[in-house]
């Protein structure tokens, strides 16, 4: 034993190693997210139909991308959007706790001799590969190498403490379970990373500084401390986000506390699984208690959901003005796959509102009052706000410079779709509203039969717009193809209406020329709207040249 150590060297080595460890974890997670993040939505959508599948989805996704935070953020977004219930989200979060234990097993490997090889190989792939996917694999390998290098540096920094009597005595106090849990919880809450706590615990175990029971207590505390991140992330967010964070706190805290009487039994089980490897024993303890907690809590999702809703009650939410974007979240800009999914939701909402404007336009322009025209104009102007919000969000996302080619193309397609929808709203705002006001000023009367046929034509156009946007957002080639295959029917319908109004041009009616001009201009704008729909569909079926097709 010794009475002196070089604290400066220890602190620099410990926190320097921790910084490299966390940086390696961050870039490895970034690479995994870019490779797998765009598939997360589909996986969550397919696997959350019941609570067991929801647990599986949370575990698999978190194990793949090595970030329970990303899984939680995605889940909260689904709940807020009405795509997932709170009960389903609870299953995903329980699964995420299981998936994140992969980190403990990862850092328990003693392969530092290969760490530099991984870092060099990863750097080479990042620097010299021209393929985006290969670059992301390089990012993962480099991050993994840095993670192990950081672990080794932390272990070397703490090695002198094994012979430092005051530190050994301090560690002996942590053999009491509750103080060790508090230390683990507080440290994790401060650094906001359970991975950091687990990394240090494994490094200390490797140097023989702590017992297995102390290590288990520390990681149980880390489970409690990591829920603070969810609470901080939910501040100022929707009620659903706060309810999800509340469940996270309850699940992690109660799940840790119920293990206090059984730590010795858990330690015995882990010793039998990995008899001579303390680091591996600690890793197994995290997996066992998280799996066990999930199996216990999953039977009580319904009462837990009621408890959470009572603790964080739903509040009456004022109707969100239609002019305000609903899904765009700046907190997701560093996660391009998730950010683009929010853009997709906002585009879907914008498309629905555009269709509402188009469906209202023809009857209002044909027969509506000045008040109805003013309302139509305001609705079209509202689309300007949504358009600006979407392109501004995509611009900010582009500044992140972390998107792979697939996501970049998706962003370009979404930008084009937003512009095309804006073109349609401008046709209503600038052309059709003006035609309606001309009708009022010139006292033009559109016949009931002509108005009916124009509405039928408008419904065909609206259906084409809906199919086109849906084909892009859902990547559905069949919907895109339907836009083009419906063209002959629309052309025939257009010809029939144009023939009818042409024959009526010779009728002995007042303002017949002005009426003819109004009716043909409405048809022309509807044709142009369908042309825009073909442009959107053409992004899904690029071999179809929309500009070569005419109505």
Task: Describe the protein.
The protein has 551 residues and is mostly helical. It folds into two domains: 305 residues, no CATH class; 219 residues, Methane Monooxygenase Hydroxylase, Chain G, domain 1. Helix content is 79%, strand content 0%. It contains 23 helices and no strands. Helix 3 crosses helix 13 and helix 7 packs across helix 10. The longest helix has 41 residues.
Q: Summarize this, please?
A:
The chain is mainly alpha-helical and 551 residues long. The chain has helices spanning 7-47, 51-65, 68-80, 86-99, 102-108, 112-128, 132-158, 165-173, 177-191, 194-206, 212-225, 227-234, 239-257, 263-273, 278-297, 301-311, 336-367, 370-398, 405-442, 448-473, 477-485, 487-503, 512-540.
Global mean pLDDT: 81
Number of contiguous helices: 23
**β-strand number:** 0
Radius of gyration: 31 Å
- Characterize the overall form: elongated
One letter per element, helices H and strands E, the order comes to HHHHHHHHHHHHHHHHHHHHHHH
Task: Summarize the topology.
Blueprint: H1 7-47, H2 51-65, H3 68-80, H4 86-99, H5 102-108, H6 112-128, H7 132-158, H8 165-173, H9 177-191, H10 194-206, H11 212-225, H12 227-234, H13 239-257, H14 263-273, H15 278-297, H16 301-311, H17 336-367, H18 370-398, H19 405-442, H20 448-473, H21 477-485, H22 487-503, H23 512-540
């Amino acid at each position: 034993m010794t009475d002196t150590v070089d604290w400066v060297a220890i602190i620099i080595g410990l926190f320097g190693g921790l910084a490299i460890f966390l940086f390696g974890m961050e870039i490895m997670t970034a690479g995994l997210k870019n490779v797998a993040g765009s598939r997360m939505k589909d996986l969550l959508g397919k696997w959350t139909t019941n609570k067991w599948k929801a647990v599986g989805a949370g575990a698999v996704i978190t194990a793949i991308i090595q970030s329970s935070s990303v899984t939680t953020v995605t889940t909260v977004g689904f709940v807020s959007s009405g795509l997932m219930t709170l009960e389903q989200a609870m299953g995903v979060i329980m699964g995420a706790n299981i998936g994140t234990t992969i980190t403990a097993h990862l850092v328990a490997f003693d392969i530092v001799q290969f760490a530099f090889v991984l870092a060099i190989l990863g750097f080479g792939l990042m620097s010299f590969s021209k393929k985006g996917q290969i670059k992301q694999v390089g990012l993962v390998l480099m991050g993994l190498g840095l993670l192990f290098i950081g672990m080794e540096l932390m272990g070397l920094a703490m090695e002198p403490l094994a012979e430092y009597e005051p530190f050994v005595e301090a560690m002996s106090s942590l053999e009491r379970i509750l103080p060790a849990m508090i230390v683990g919880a507080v440290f994790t809450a401060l650094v906001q990373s359970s991975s950091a706590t687990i990394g240090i615990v494994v490094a200390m175990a490797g140097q023989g500084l702590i017992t297995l029971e102390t290590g288990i207590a520390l990681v149980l505390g880390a489970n409690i401390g990591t829920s603070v991140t969810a609470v901080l992330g939910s501040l100022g967010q929707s009620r659903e986000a706060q309810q999800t964070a509340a469940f996270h706190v309850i699940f992690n805290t109660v799940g840790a506390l119920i293990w206090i009487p059984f730590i010795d039994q858990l330690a015995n089980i882990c010793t039998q699984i990995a008899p001579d490897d303390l680091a591996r024993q600690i890793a197994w303890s995290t997996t066992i208690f998280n799996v066990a907690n999930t199996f216990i809590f999953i039977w009580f999702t319904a009462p837990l959901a009621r408890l959470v809703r009572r603790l964080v009650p739903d509040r009456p939410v004022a109707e969100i003005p239609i002019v305000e974007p609903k899904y765009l979240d700046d907190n997701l800009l560093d996660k391009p796959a998730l950010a683009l999914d929010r853009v997709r939701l906002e585009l879907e909402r914008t498309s629905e509102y555009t269709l509402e404007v188009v469906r209202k336009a023809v009857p209002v322009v044909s027969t509506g009052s000045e008040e109805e025209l003013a309302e139509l104009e305001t609705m079209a102007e509202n689309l300007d706000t949504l358009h600006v919000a979407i392109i501004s969000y995509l611009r900010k996302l582009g500044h992140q410079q972390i998107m792979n080619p697939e996501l970049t193309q998706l962003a370009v397609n979404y930008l084009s779709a937003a512009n095309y929808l804006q073109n349609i709203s401008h046709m209503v705002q600038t052309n059709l509203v003006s035609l309606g006001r001309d009708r009022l000023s010139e006292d033009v009367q559109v016949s009931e039969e002509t108005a009916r046929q124009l509405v039928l034509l408008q419904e065909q156009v609206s259906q084409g717009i809906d199919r086109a946007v849906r084909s892009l957002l859902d990547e559905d080639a069949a919907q895109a193809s339907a836009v083009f295959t419906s063209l002959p029917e629309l052309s025939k319908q257009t010809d029939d209406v144009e023939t009818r109004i042409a024959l009526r041009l010779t009728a002995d009616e007042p303002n017949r020329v002005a009426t003819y001009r109004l009716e043909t201009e409405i048809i022309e704008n509807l044709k142009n709207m369908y042309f825009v729909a073909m442009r959107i569909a053409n992004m899904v079926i690029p071999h179809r040249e929309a500009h070569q097709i005419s109505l």
